[in-house]
Amino acid sequence: MTQKPDFKAPARTAVVPDTLTLKRSPDADAPRRNLVGLTRPALRDALLEAGTPEKQVKMRVNQIWQWIYQWGVRDFTAMTNLSKAYRAQLDAHFEIAVPEVVRREISADGTRKYLVRIAGGHEVETVYIPEEGRGTLCISSQVGCTLTCSFCHTGTQKLVRNLTAGEIIGQVMLARDDLGEWPEPGVGTGDDGPRLLSNIVLMGMGEPLYNFDAVRDAMKIAMDGEGISLSRRRITLSTSGVVPEIAKTAEEIGCLLAVSFHATTDEVRNTLVPINKRWNIEALLEALREYPRLSNSERITFEYVMLKDVNDSDADARRLVKLIRGIPAKINLIPFNPWPGSPYERSDWDRIEAFADIVYKAGYASPIRTPRGEDIMAACGQLKSETERARKSRAQIAAETGL
Ligand code: SAH
Ligand code: SF4
User: Fold this and answer.
1) Residues 147, 46: one domain?
2) Closest Cα to residue 64, out of 99, 96, 32, 22?
3) How far apart are CA 137 and CA 352, in angstroms?
4) Residue 5 domain-assigned?
5) N or C: which end of the chain has fewer CB within 10 A?
6) Is the pLDDT of residue 323 over 90?
7) Ligand 1 pocket, 352 CB below 6 A?
């Protein structure tokens, strides 16, 4: 069942225990393990450890999985197809927790930015972008980033830590809470109409391929047909070009791939996307050529940020199409989104159009990404934790990372 977002508290968080009084085990003060983010095999092991009989465990995994990921239930007492005693047993050992939204801002264009607090008091940002008949959630995979792309706000914040799989899939769950988009618990399937949250892009804070296992586990949960059930073609992972992880992404996740290309010579790419010094354009293209075959997927998206007088000439456009020849691709032109103290300017509109035209005439789709949520600093590359706003100098960052 799809509801219009009216931003009331979602019903499932208000599930009230019936007459059942939950008894905690003797070690009631011990922290309960969070089930959110566990893969199916890990959930199975956790249930066995908590005393679930071996011959029931397969069915229990399915049931609990559905309550958590299909219906968004956070309270074991609501899992009405489990016995009361078993619900109490689960509650003694486990919790179902997603990160807390500490602030929600809504842009004039409807884009929503959530400031999300994770364990340790750290913060990341998650952005929901509504579109006609669909909606995309841009999620973060790290607090900060080890990389220092010179046009990116997140790149000025050093890596604080990787997100866990639970914190990554938790962003999808908290957005569904806010949008009021869980099917009716125990009844609905969520498959009966367009979804408000229909697509995921891993384009928030951090480099997803430097947190591979957690990103993979979270995306497997997002794709699982008995839960959130998003097709792998509705998930796009964006990487700055961590070449050795690209084939693994095809084999172990199989989602669509976007690559932050941004330049057509190694000289310029070294300054914009410093990971290029480690894996240059040639090495990157070689990995990208293999991706569609390995993942059995469609086109690769080449992201190209338009920076005035840096990478936006006609010669750049012509070099770009030459470089990617033979790779099924679309080129997503991203007008640069400025942030306080950013060292670049956005290319002029007619320059962006002229660039797009050359790419288009060479046979590639070349959409220009309309900046969304700029008024609340939610557009691409503007994300950065509130708590870490203090800007570092480029020299300081270079000294710390060695890049
Ligand atoms: N770390 C990953 C994913 C996050 S960045 C990556 O680099 O691909 C998501 C996209 O936003 C990338 O293409 C990135 O290059 C782009 N981006 C970063 N800063 C930007 C800015 N200030 N303006 C426009 N796009 C930006
Ligand atoms: Fe990190 Fe991506 Fe920003 Fe580069 S563009 S600093 S890889 S988040």
Assistant:
1) no
2) 96
3) 26
4) no
5) N
6) yes
7) no
Q: Which of 95, 124, 145 is the last residue in one of the domains?
A: 95
Q: Is 207 in the pocket of ligand 2 (CB under 6 A)?
A: yes
**201 shares a domain with 86:** no
In the annotation, is 125 catalytic? yes
Residue 186 pLDDT exceeds 80: yes
Residue 212 lies in a domain: yes
161 and 63 both lie in a single domain: no
How many angstroms separate the first and last alpha carbons of the chain? 49
From the CA of 344, give the closest atom in ligand 1.
22
What's the pLDDT score for residue 294? 76
- Which of 70, 95, 120 represents a domain boundary (last residue)? 95
For 13-64, how does the pLDDT look when each residue is reduced to its tens digit (9 = 90+)? 333 333 334 444 545 567 899 999 999 999 999 999 999 999 999 999 999 9
- 89 Cβ neighbours under 8 A, 6+ residues apart: 50, 51
Q: Rounded mean pLDDT of 57-83?
A: 97
The tens digit of pLDDT for each residue in 251-293 reads: 999 999 999 999 999 999 999 999 999 999 999 999 999 987 7
Tell the residue nearest (CA) to atom 8 of ligand 1: 239
Confidence of residue 8 (pLDDT cuts 50, 70, 90): very low
pLDDT of 95 reads: 98
For 97-115, the pLDDT digits (tens) are 999 999 999 999 999 999 9
Q: For the CA atoms of the chain, what is the radius of gyration? A: 22
Query: The domain spanning residue 66 has which CATH number?
Result: 1.10.150.530
d(CA 52, CA 238): 39
Within this chain, do residues 32 and 88 fall inside the same structural domain, yes or no?
Answer: yes
In a shared domain, residues 251 and 354: yes
Tell whether 208 is covered by a domain. yes
Q: Catalytic one among 49, 145, 380, 388? A: 380
Task: Examine the domain organization and report whether 145 and 198 are in the same domain.
Answer: yes
* Cα distances (Å, whole numbers) of residue 238 to 63, 93, 140, 215, 255: 33, 36, 11, 12, 10
CATH number reported for the structural domain that contains residue 304 in this entry: 3.20.20.70
Q: What's the number of domains the chain is made of?
A: 2
Supply the range of the domain harboring residue 51: 25-95
- Give the residue-averaged pLDDT of 351-371: 93
**C-alpha closest to that of 359 among 307, 310, 308, 306:** 306
